[in-house]
């Protein structure tokens, strides 16, 4: 029974070296982001999209400060849910923002699944019917679910192995793509909408999705050797490594495809960029890379996300129903996570999934920085100006992104707002009821003693 209940990953304190932590961080960061976001960012801001990746890195660098400071003060605090709890206690902001993080992680899974489908179909000349991409995505999530039911060690070893292959493969793609590009200059004359500041900020917000995996490192806290120094270092090195990789890839894509081609092939632009440069072999190599990256990302993500929901359940911040299922809470949260991911993958396209993810993530990120300024600053020895700058930059990116989407796809912003209202109202009712139940329980036991 104890074995059934315990699905946490057994790491020893101090078992992760700095290099190992960096691999963990970059492995999570280089997920579907680079494969699917490149085209979407180009659609928003024209040929300036490689610069939008750099702008996203600057925002993430300011953001990372709060996470580094909290994880230095409380290593292995159990992730975002615990960070919010340290700042806001058993109140609505904790539950609301933790659920936003949860949903943004589930959305990231669907994003990975759809990207897997879009790239896999390039081996068969594309998806004319539009049905195969969601079918392949749904199949991948189900396969990852079955592996997640088996053992932690398997998940860990598969994810690490794929991480090494993926980073090496993307490096080769970027270097070879830039090496044999027709011209080593990117044509900026086609920057038709690049002038619009809102579009550039919107693309920058999308770019943040390609970096947000750094938060995984903070969850490794006490497993890292000398965590007070190395967690921060690992985050900085991971972000820097991703900047180099993403710039290389952006450059390789921009110099092998025209802007129109990048936008036309936005769901699989890396495979499209490999074709003129390397022919069919290049396409196969890129598709294999994308399939590995997305499959590995989903495997690790489903485990992490279901752990987070289980933790929120244990902290009595979210309601929990068994629906007649056997096994531990973490098994149940695994099922909820997978079902949600399947629905998103089946019914939403890539750009809508990304839009929901970025809105939820940025709002949660702002709440973390505000919590540091308002409640934790003295405990964790943080300087207020850094999280304040992070909030300002987050709001800029979010504002630009929402503005672009209101003009191009207002429905997705409507869905995001409606979802957040439902979460806030449901959580408020749940927290009120559980506080009431707790009080009446305390009263009963008090009367019983008398």
UniProtKB/TrEMBL annotation:
UniProt KW keywords: Cell membrane, Membrane, Transmembrane, Transmembrane helix
Membrane topology category: Multi-pass membrane protein
Could you confirm whether the keyword Manganese appears in this record? no
Residue ranges of the TM segments: 16-35, 47-68, 92-112, 132-151, 158-180, 200-219, 231-254, 283-310, 331-348, 354-372, 384-404, 410-431
In the UniProt record, which is one GO cellular component term? plasma membrane
Q: What is its main location?
A: membrane
User: Is Cell membrane a UniProt keyword of this protein?
Assistant: yes
Compartments where located: Cell membrane
Gene Ontology terms, MF aspect: transmembrane transporter activity
Protein name as catalogued: Amino acid permease
The taxonomic lineage of its organism, from the top, reads: Bacteria, Pseudomonadati, Pseudomonadota, Betaproteobacteria, Rhodocyclales
């Amino acid at each position: 029974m104890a074995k059934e209940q315990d699905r946490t990953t057994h790491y020893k304190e101090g078992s992760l070296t700095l290099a190992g932590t960096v691999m963990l961080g970059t492995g999570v960061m280089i997920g579907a982001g680079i494969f699917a976001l490149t085209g979407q960012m180009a659609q928003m801001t024209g040929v300036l999209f490689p610069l939008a990746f750099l702008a996203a890195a600057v925002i993430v660098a300011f953001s990372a400060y709060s996470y580094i400071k909290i994880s230095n003060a409380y290593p292995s605090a159990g992730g975002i849910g615990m960070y919010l709890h340290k700042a806001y206690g058993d109140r609505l902001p904790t539950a609301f923002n933790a659920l936003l993080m949860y949903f943004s992680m589930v959305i990231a899974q669907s994003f990975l699944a759809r990207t897997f489908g879009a790239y896999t179909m390039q081996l068969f000349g594309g998806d004319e019917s539009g049905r195969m991409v969601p079918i392949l995505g749904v199949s991948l999530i189900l396969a990852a679910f079955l592996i997640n039911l088996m053992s932690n060690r398997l998940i860990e070893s598969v994810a690490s192995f794929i991480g090494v292959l993926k980073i090496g493969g993307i490096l080769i793609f970027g270097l070879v793509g830039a090496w044999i590009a027709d011209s080593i200059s990117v044509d900026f004359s086609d920057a038709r909408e690049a002038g619009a500041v809102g579009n550039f900020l919107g693309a920058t917000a999308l770019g943040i999705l390609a970096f947000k995996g750094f938060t995984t490192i903070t969850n490794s806290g006490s497993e890292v050797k000398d965590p007070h120094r190395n967690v921060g270092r690992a985050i900085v090195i991971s972000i820097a490594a991703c900047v180099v990789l993403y710039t290389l890839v952006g450059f390789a894509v921009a110099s092998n495809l025209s802007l129109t081609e990048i936008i036309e092939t936005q769901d699989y632009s890396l495979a499209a960029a490999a074709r003129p440069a390397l022919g069919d072999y290049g396409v196969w190599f890129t598709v294999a890379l994308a399939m590995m990256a997305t499959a590995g990302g989903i495997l690790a993500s489903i485990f992490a996300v279901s752990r987070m929901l289980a933790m929120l359940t244990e902290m009595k911040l979210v309601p929990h129903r068994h629906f007649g299922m056997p096994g531990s809470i973490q098994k149940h949260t695994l099922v909820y996570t997978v079902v949600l991911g399947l629905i998103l993958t089946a019914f939403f396209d890539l750009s809508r999934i990304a839009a929901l993810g970025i809105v939820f993530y940025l709002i949660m990120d702002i709440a973390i920085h505000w919590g540091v300024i308002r409640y934790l600053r003295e405990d964790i020895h943080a300087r207020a100006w850094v999280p304040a700058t992070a909030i300002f930059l987050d709001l800029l990116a979010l504002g630009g992104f929402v503005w672009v989407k209101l003009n191009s796809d207002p429905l997705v912003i409507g869905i995001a707002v409606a979802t957040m209202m439902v979460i806030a109202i449901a959580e408020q009712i749940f927290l009120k009821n559980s506080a009431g139940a707790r009080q009446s329980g305390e009263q009963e036991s008090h009367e019983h003693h008398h």
